[in-house]
Amino acid sequence: MPDASRITPPVLLPGQSSPVALSLTATIDSAGLGPVAVRSSLHAVATDTEGETTTVRLHPGERLNRDVVLRLAFGSGAELGCAAVLAEDTIQVTLVPAVATAAARRDRDVVVLLDRSGSMDGWKMVAARRAAARVVDTLTDRDRFAVLAFDHIAEHPTGLDRGLVPALDRNRFAAVGWLAGLEARGGTELAGPLEECADLLRVDEGRDRILVLVTDGQVGDEDRVLARISPRLNGTRVFTLGIDRAVNAGFLQRLADAGAGRCELVETEDRLDEVLTGIHRRIAPPILTDVVVEVDGHAVTDPAPAHSDLFEGAPLLLGGRVEGAVSTVTVRAETAAGEPFSITLTPTRSDDKAVRAVWARARLRDLEDAYAAGTGQVLPARIVEFSLAHGVLSRFTAFIAVDRSRKTIGGQQTVVQPVEAADGWGMLGTADVEINAMRRRSVPAPGSAYPAAPVAAYGSPPPQASAPRSVPLAGAPLPAVPVAGCAPRPEPGSMPPDGQRRLFGRRRARSQSQSESAKNTSMLDVVLPFIDRLRALLDAPDPAVATELADALQTVGAPVDLVDALRRLAAALTIGDAPAAGAAVDEIRSLRTELASPPLGSSRREFWH
Prior knowledge:
The chain is of the alpha+beta class. It is built from 18 helices and 21 strands. Among the domains are: 24-75; 108-282, 3-Layer(aba) Sandwich (Rossmann fold); 498-609, no CATH class. Strands 8, 9, 10, 11, 12, 13 and 14 form a seven-stranded mixed sheet that branches. The chain has a five-stranded mixed sheet with strand order 17-18-7-6-21, covered by helices on one side. Strand 6 (81-87) and strand 7 form a beta hairpin. The chain is globular.
């Protein structure tokens, strides 16, 4: 990935405490929507309620290595809830849909795309299979569907056509049965499968076209994925289901926004049961479409976010800029039946700066998505100007922290700050994640026999399994068990002296080899978190990246030869010395003999190729 160096920071080793203490407090103002009930799914919290304001604080010691997910329930939910808040020159309107709102439904074309990459191993893969199967089960004979599963390749259910098929019982049964046998494996190549799904739904025949993506969102180069898929959607609604305790919600929300759909998070198995109960409503058409906000009969300035459809079970938050005094706020939309909808509100005035910040972040996301799509209408200068004017972070700006407690000698000092690995993520190396997944899958069930090793692994057919042997009584000698292809072990004193010398020599050599292998494995563990960035550097040498990697590797105790080679590469690239840079690259590659050679019997792969 071209952005691998930016999204792969150095991480703390397992069990190492973070030097940065983080805490979180959330203040929730119901803004006239009625009493609110707060539920936290991944963290222990304490709540205090005073009037319409609820304060939520994490308990001391709670780690922020996973999402903080707070779910709010307002009032009874029997009717559509609406509230408007005016903070200086910013208006914010919140719409909360009623529970179990019936919406008109047309015949549907549904494509389910399931992520089966290595990062989905464990409970996430089980949850993803259940979610995809439940979506298929909710279809009727009037619908058509297709199912794809992807890692580095995309696959279709055996026995079904690659295109859309009628959602008959036999077709749904075949798809669900195929889903039940999927296991996590491989890498994550999302752009191609997304394009294939969009192409399956590109024909508009007066049917609702729905794309459902089930994934943890662990992908890089997100802008390229969105730029490739957005022009192909053309009216297809995209629903994303993020399954993880630290899901890439930002990317999944952007993808859902591009398809005028919604994003749903599943952070626990309990949450999965809750989602599956009403999944047919979660991928239903919106209750209101094209929602706009007017102030005293005039449209607001810079409305955000760009998507403005209200779905069942998901609130809609709209904002914009206003000028002068405001007396009334009108919300206009269109219902699922095509009828006009409007409601007039009296805004509540507030001095809370969060109102402006929430609108500014939503507006900035719209600008960055337009920039990533490559339309040419949004330039970096416009994003920078907006970011600085409203104090919200963008891809072209940064927050700078000034530490006046220390004095730096010289003009530049680099501080490497490792971060805590996200809960459940394989940030210590993709190879380790894949190996652990293979090991877990290879462990047989209790009472079952281990599978026979393939012939290719040993060069000769494995011996046939023998009948179960009885266990000798305590104190009885163990019987000799013949092993195919192995000579019996000689009795003590029966081996000639020259044979004993050869045996001891083999043992000493094997011991030295094992010691060297252990050292290599230890060094490989140290370098493993930086593998992707090293490979990207060798493909596209860059002095800044080489310096950054040298500092980071020196901090974690990587081999001195590798650190020195990286520093020579950075120096050569800076002064334009091509021969010296080439020599440094060759030296870094040559270190694979020391670092990448796996110990005998190890399942690690060479990570340089």
